[in-house]
Amino acid sequence: MSDFQQLLPKEEPSIPVSITDSGNAQLFVVLKQYKFHKQLCIELYQAETTQAGKIKNPLTGINPLDLTLTTTDLAAVKFFSAVARFQNNPTAAKTAGDLDALKTIIKNPLQLAFYYHNPAFSENIVAGSIQPVTMGPLAQHLSIWVQWAEPFYELTLQATIDGKEYNWSDLRIKYDYFFHLGETLYAIGNFHLINVVRFFARTNGLIRIHESKFKSFQETILIPLADYLPIMYPDTLAPLPEQIIQPGTGEGLEKVIYLSELGNYVIIDPVMKYGNVEIPVRTKRQLYITDEEGKVQTMYRNEPAETGFLALLIKQHPDFLEQLDNDLRHFYLHKSRFLEEAWFFTAFEVWEKEGITIYGFNQIKGNKLNSHRAKVNIKVTSGLNWFSTDIKVGFGNQTASLTRLQHAVRNKNKYVQLGDGTLGILPEEWIEKLADYFTSGEIIDNNLITPKINFSEVRKLYEDQMLDSPVKEELALYTDKINTNATIQEVSVPAALNGLLRHYQHEGLNWLNFIDDFNFGGILADDMGLGKSIQIIAFILLQRSKVKQNTNLLVVPTSLLFNWQDEVQKFAPSIKILTLYNADRQKNTNAFNEYEIILTSYGTLISDITFLQHYTFNYIFLDESQNIKNIESQRYQAARLLKSRNKIAITGTPIENNTFDVYAQLSFACPGLLGSKQHFKHIYSTPIDTFKVKRRSIELQKKIAPFILRRTKAEVATELPDKTEMICYCPMGEEQRNAYDTCEKDLRDFLTDITNEEISKNSMHVLRGLTRLRQICNSPQLLKDEKLQGDGSAKIEMLLEQIESKSRQHKILVFSQFVGMLNLIKNELEARNIPFELLTGKTKNRETAVHNFQNEASIRVFLISLKAGGTGLNLTAADYVYIVDPWWNPAVENQAIDRSYRIGQKKNVVAVRLITPGTIEEKIVKLQNTKKELSDKLIKTATSYLNGISKAEILSLLNV
């Protein structure tokens, strides 16, 4: 067990002495000198006292650091720590910190008695070797007197202590820090003065300088010393000229603060200017003036003004008050604290308001900040179809440009670059406001331009006092008329319209005219088949009475060029239309003023944008405007370059994939309504599409509702026919057209070389030729002829585009007479992962295919051969029917359409025929509508091999 005794403590822990110990024990301070190094040492002792209050032996030394653990009083802790600084460090050089510690001891917060050691009695600290002493006020008023004693100038030191003046001979230096007068010690209150006193002590109180060296001595020694104690010159010796106020330099006082840096600190040096002479306020430097007789006289400094100056300065930071106790001629702050914007802005404003000039702020290393707080002034005025916001953000005499403000705000940077190279600091409360301002408009000529269509944002973002009177009136009007669903005034249908508008179509015309009155654009987004084209045509006719130059650009998919040509000819033959398409098209705007519609395709728009962008149209209409939904696409970029009085997007599917679809279209039709791409993505797209934030969805819907008109077939069902039939033209590409032209020429040449009588003998060859032409209209791949190059199919491209845009909301039937064509479509659907069913003559499980299409929500497309499924099927789940290739007998097509349009169908059915213009298919459609007799003959050819058809009639089917 003896080994384990080592675990036990060897002695009891020491108990620190408490400054509140009771009894006659007294704690006191003893000042002494180290025996060999003669440095000041200060110690604490504790001892009993006699009845007379005198210290008696034994004296117990106390560690001051132990006492710091026994008190929570901050002043006591500082006192004990200061005492500890003067112990066990006899060789250390004197520092300003030592004097600060000594001043803390002299304050004596515990009211302890002070003694000094008399080594003549005993080298040890005992009761008989210590003498009581009083600590007097600091001795801070010393002066050097210069006297002439040819050929020398003699310098002596005088001190004013406790209100009395003393010559050097009257003074006794104690421990290098004190003047010892009687029973009182007066600490020298300035560290620099301690060095002066020590130097004079080494020279026995007298310094002699030969007159030949005095000027240099004055410049290098006396003038710097004058910051800490007055230098008193004889009348025969004038101060240096820079110390004398020169006549004519002004009698007023000027307060100045010089800023500089020292390491990681900023130096703040307050200076009072008396005419041409600068006096650092925290120095003892004297001021001189020349009297009327030309003699130099000492002039008293304006102490009240300088004291007020200091008071104003120290109020700006708590550290400055503490620094008043040090011996520096300046104040200081760590650079990081100094540059805290809330501090130096407030301090500078207070100082400058009091007439204080500040120098050196921008010379601080690494500091490019502007010293002025931002002053923001905003005024919103009204323009033609925009609001103009004048934003002035000033920093003193510097004003930030809008582009640099926008750059800072976009990067969430509170610093904005100014013209003089400094950085202005944007107030936190303005960064978010400015970000919203910039989002709502764009910078043009150093003004922020916000389209009036974005009036709701202007009303929300800007305070009332920022808006001028016309802006307030317009905002009130827009709010009343647009955001409150006010009644839209009805307009008369233009007399030049060759057709009747259904009620909802007339409402569409009213709406187009309504937003036109405000110079706002929008999206006409009615369902397919509701007659958007006739509404646009009627609106163009209506524009004749509203504008002088009614030239409008209509951009459509290539497949709809012919549809629009037919629609315009059908409903408004008085409209003069110019089509820009094909290689031989017009490639300038010279004749545009002669036309009301310039019709072109998206592809041609991209090619011709170089000249189209320089013409200002009345309106620009984009049909199937979902074509510009990708804002990175060439189509979108080209469309945004176009100029017009207004713009309308036309689409049956404004949103196909996500909210960015509608952003792209509205940023074209209603520039500025939804802000920048980044803003829209952050505020709407990501919250809605990714996180399904309902609040943002409702907010977006409310914002865009006035500018989108959408009616579905279900909403206007009572006005619709149960079945809507339309033609969609699919122009062939170059390779497909070349293949068609080659086969057509072969057939035409063959027919030219035979007589009418020989046709019946060669009926199989003729029929094969006609069939080949019809197959090429679908796809050259159906011929499997190596001589015919190209595998492109305009119909497949169009059909897939329609399927991708419609299949989400609708089920679709696709009919073709050619199984090979269905297989090509099948391959494309599989490549796009679009579920479908296929029904041909080879399909064994017909009932399963029909059941799946009718009942499975995921099956949106049914591919059917006209022969296998043209009759007998009930496919009422579908409401869109596409006839890929026309047949001579329209009844066959109608039977196919009736697979969907039959009893049990609760939806309106849209039937679309895909026709390749400039081909035999276009002739077939015309035959179906007009030449009934020839059509009937051709119908029989399926069985009678062209009996009864003349050579001329067959040639009429070709492009002769």
TrEMBL record:
Domain Helicase C-terminal: 795-950
Keyword line: ATP-binding, Helicase, Hydrolase, Nucleotide-binding
InterPro entries: Helicase_ATP-bd, Helicase_C-like, Helicase_SWF/SNF/SWI_bac, P-loop_NTPase, SNF2-like_sf, SNF2/RAD54-like_C, SNF2_N, SNF2_RAD54_helicase_repair
GO function terms (MF aspect): ATP binding; DNA translocase activity; helicase activity; hydrolase activity
Start and end residues of each Helicase ATP-binding domain: 513-672
UniProt-listed PANTHER family: DNA EXCISION REPAIR PROTEIN ERCC-6-RELATED (PTHR45629:SF7), SNF2/RAD54 FAMILY MEMBER (PTHR45629)
UniProt name for this protein: DNA helicase
Organism: Niastella yeongjuensis
Lineage: Bacteria, Pseudomonadati, Bacteroidota, Chitinophagia, Chitinophagales
